[in-house]
């Protein structure tokens, strides 16, 4: 089968289409004929070596976090929930020995795989697992009570956009940041109040509340400057540690703010969570946003575009 791999770390040019053995579904597993896989910031970090991974020590390394496609082989000992021909989506952990989702076929435990949202294209379905689960993990950890106010940074992005929509679906009041050109987009996701992104955003969030927001989902990785937006006793969910995590934690403690880490792989294999996301997409409460699609041989171009910023929706490789 074809896969997209890297034999050395570096810029987008190190990505190449490679041949790998086609996997087969073992016990308790299903095989997906992948039709779409997304390009995420984490893939660029694996590619560049900022977060190097080893996949059984073999090369090339295959990145990729999301897949959508069709079940084409089912191993023994599965539940019968999925059938050959079903349109499905799943998250892949690229640190597993078999590699990530940049491949024509992927074999996964049955519990990792759920039906794709009704009516979604493969490209649309692929945009949901990783970023939806990240936003859901962030919100779950905030443990917000009813009628809470939550602020979301990077709200025009994939994680931030899902965080806005999931927080609205949970009944919260949602504040979000946006660049001027993204205001309509973020409003369409359901944010109750939108403030300009950039320096001073914490003051703008705070000005919309009496004592500060109950929680922040920081999908823009702003970190400590957001603490002043949060009331004492509130919580901030971060998606990536900053350069001085210890100072961030000290500043949060001083302000009486709890920090929680959103980590998507805590939801590896959580079919209940992925099913929840699918149901919300079926109900039209989550938007499946595809920015553009690429053939495998143009994966480097997708990585370049993502690194340049300004992409709205996910870039998707189609097989
Ligand atoms: N912990 C985990 O398990 C996990 C899982 C998934 C993702 N992540 C991380 O989550 C972050 C977001 O991922 P994503 O896929 O949502 O990326 P994305 O789609 O590129 O969205 C990020 C958004 O934040 C905006 N942004 C950048 N700097 C900003 C600033 N200073 N103020 C306000 N907005 C700003 C970006 O705008 P521009 O495009 O204009 O720059 C973009 O709209 C990444 O760091 C990613 O690595 C973590």
User: Which topology of the largest domain does CATH recognise?
Assistant: Quinone Oxidoreductase, Chain A, domain 1
**How would the global form be characterised?**
globular
The helix/strand order is EEEHEEEEHHEHEHEHEEHEHEHE
Unreliable residue stretches: none
What is the SS-derived class? alpha/beta
> Any idea what the CATH superfamily of the largest domain is called?
Medium-chain alcohol dehydrogenases, catalytic domain
The number of E-state strands comes to 15
Question: Largest sheet, described in full?
Answer: 7 strands, mixed
Helix content: 25-40%
Give the CATH class of the largest domain.
Alpha Beta
**What separation lies between the terminal Cα atoms?**
11 Å
- CATH architectural label of the largest domain: Alpha-Beta Complex
Tally the structural domains.
2
Rg over alpha carbons: 20 Å
Strand content: 25-35%
Bound molecules: NADP nicotinamide-adenine-dinucleotide phosphate
| Mean model confidence by pLDDT | 96
Supply the number of helical segments.
9
Strand and helix map with partners:
Elements: E1 2-6, E2 15-19, E3 29-39, H1 41-48, E4 66-74, E5 87-91, E6 105-109, E7 113-115, H2 122-126, H3 129-142, E8 149-153, H4 158-169, E9 173-178, H5 183-188, E10 193-196, H6 201-206, E11 213-218, E12 230-238, H7 245-255, E13 258-261, H8 271-282, E14 290-294, H9 299-308, E15 314-318
Parallel strand pairs: 8-9, 8-11, 9-10, 11-12, 12-13, 14-15
Antiparallel strand pairs: 1-2, 3-4, 3-6, 3-15, 4-5, 5-7
Helix pairs in contact: 3-4
The structure holds NADP nicotinamide-adenine-dinucleotide phosphate.
NADP nicotinamide-adenine-dinucleotide phosphate binds near residues 42, 198 and 262.
């Amino acid at each position: 089968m074809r896969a997209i791999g890297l034999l050395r770390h570096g810029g987008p040019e190190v990505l190449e289409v490679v041949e790998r053995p086609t996997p087969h579904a073992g016990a308790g597993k299903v095989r997906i004929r992948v039709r779409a896989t997304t390009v995420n910031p984490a893939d660029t970090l694996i590619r560049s070596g900022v977060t190097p991974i080893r996949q059984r020590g073999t090369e090339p390394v295959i990145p990729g976090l999301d897949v959508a496609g069709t079940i084409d082989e089912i191993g023994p000992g599965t539940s019968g929930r999925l059938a050959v021909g079903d349109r499905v989506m799943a998250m892949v952990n690229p640190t597993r020995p078999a590699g990530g989702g940049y491949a024509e076929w992927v074999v996964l435990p049955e519990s990792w795989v759920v039906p794709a949202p009704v009516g979604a294209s493969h490209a649309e379905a692929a945009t949901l697992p990783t970023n939806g689960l990240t936003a859901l993990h962030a919100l779950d950890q905030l443990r917000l009570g009813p009628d809470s106010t939550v602020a979301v940074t990077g709200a025009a992005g994939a994680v931030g956009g899902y965080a806005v929509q999931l927080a609205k679906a949970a009944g919260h009041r949602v504040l979000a940041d946006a660049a001027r050109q993204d205001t309509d987009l973020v409003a369409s996701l359901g944010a109750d109040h939108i403030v300009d992104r950039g320096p001073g955003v914490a003051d703008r969030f705070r000005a919309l509340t009496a004592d500060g927001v109950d929680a922040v989902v920081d999908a823009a990785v702003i970190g400590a400057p957001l603490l002043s937006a949060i009331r004492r006793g509130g919580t901030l969910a971060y998606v990536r540690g900053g350069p001085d995590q210890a100072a961030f934690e000290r500043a949060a403690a001083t302000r009486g703010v709890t920090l929680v880490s959103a980590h998507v792989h805590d939801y590896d294999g959580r079919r209940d969570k992925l099913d929840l996301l699918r149901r919300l997409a079926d109900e039209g409460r989550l938007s499946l946003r595809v920015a553009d699609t690429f053939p495998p041989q143009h994966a480097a171009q997708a990585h370049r575009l993502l690194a340049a910023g300004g992409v709205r929706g996910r870039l998707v490789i189609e097989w």
